[in-house]
Amino acid sequence: MAGKVSVIGAGAYGATTAHRLAECDAFDTVVLTDVVEGRAEGLALDIGQCRPIVGFETHVVGRTTGRGGDGYDVLAGSDVVVLAAGVPRTPGMSRQELLDTNAAVVRDAAAQIARHAAGAVLIVVTNPLDEMTALAQRVTGFPPSRVIGQGGVLDSARFSTFVADELGVPVSSVRTLTLGSHGDAMVPVPSRSTVDGRPLAEVVDADALDALTERTRTGGGEIVALLKTGSAYHAPSAAAAAMARAIAGDTGAVLPACAWLTGEYGIADVYLGVPVELGVTGVRRVVTTPLAESELAALTEAADTLRERQARLR
Ligand code: APR
């Protein structure tokens, strides 16, 4: 595999994503940028110096960018751009409370992405995720299939981990799915979740299932409360890197992600977490999977909430 991936925002999430993408040798070049003078360059040197130890060849390039657009020419020729700039939550804060601050960051960065990496597939990870993905699509003017948010890979990884730990089984025997928002309107989907192929509801009782889905919904906040400064980035960066690799490798992997709906699940005109097939063009198609009646109702409700929030950002 060859090509170039650029990560905007060299904070915890962005730098770890760049590191993961460099180590897997899936791209010729990984670019890392940040507005803090020298941070991206320093981290790029540090990540690049892992090469002889870990054994990979990816070139890692760091660049300081100015808010007016200086330095963004480094994005030219990117196949994939990961937008990871913006502030994280502090304990007790909802992702929604980041909206005003991070909308300004996303508007600024998205305009530069459109200018310098007009052919890229854009993966947004900045929170509040669903709103920032919709905003990035609007500002770039990219086709919605080329602007995708990372939420569902992480949320379903958290769900799978909690299930595996509860039952004392390997995570590899667990499959879970979460849809809806990457936030309060998240829709964990037990009907599509299995342990060794058996429906989740057959292997845990109703109370345990409720506790597992609730912990999944609040899984990010649990980590923020423990860390006290900053939010999760190890599993989030693994999720973003998995999406970037699926896109660059044109693999057709089906992953849950925040994508634009045009009638799938009876829902349209909103960015919402759904399973998508990923390839070099971005979202090849939204995958419609059968849902229980209550799950479809929750997804429809999440769509209504998000459509309204996304419209408010116009
Ligand atoms: N362009 C580039 N980088 C920027 C910009 C900008 N306009 N504005 C801020 N940054 C950089 C900061 O300088 C910092 O290095 O974004 C980085 C954010 O890093 P952290 O504070 O460590 O936050 P992180 O944990 O990486 O989270 C980033 O991802 O999960 C979400 O909620 C989280 O929205 C947050 C984002």
From TrEMBL:
The record's similarity note reads: Belongs to the LDH/MDH superfamily. LDH family.
Looking at the record, the residues that make up the Lactate/malate dehydrogenase C-terminal domain are: 154-308
Per UniProt, NAD(+) binds at: 9-14, 34, 102, 125-127
The stretch of residues making up the signal peptide is: none
- Keywords recorded for this protein, A-Z: NAD, Oxidoreductase, Tricarboxylic acid cycle
BP terms from Gene Ontology: lactate metabolic process; tricarboxylic acid cycle
Protein's name according to its UniProt entry: Malate dehydrogenase
The active site consists of: 182 (proton acceptor)
Does the record bear Heme in its keywords?
no
Q: Which InterPro entries match?
A: L-lactate/malate_DH, Lactate/malate_DH_C, Lactate/malate_DH_N, Lactate_DH/Glyco_Ohase_4_C, Malate_DH_type3, NAD(P)-bd_dom_sf
Q: Which CDD domains match?
A: LDH-like_MDH
Q: Which residues form the Lactate/malate dehydrogenase N-terminal domain?
A: 4-149
* Molecular function as annotated in GO: L-lactate dehydrogenase (NAD+) activity
Q: Which residues does the annotation say bind substrate? A: 89, 95, 127, 158
UniProt-listed Gene3D superfamilies: Lactate dehydrogenase/glycoside hydrolase, family 4, C-terminal, NAD(P)-binding Rossmann-like Domain
Q: What is the superkingdom listed in this entry's lineage?
A: Bacteria
Species for this entry: Actinocatenispora thailandica
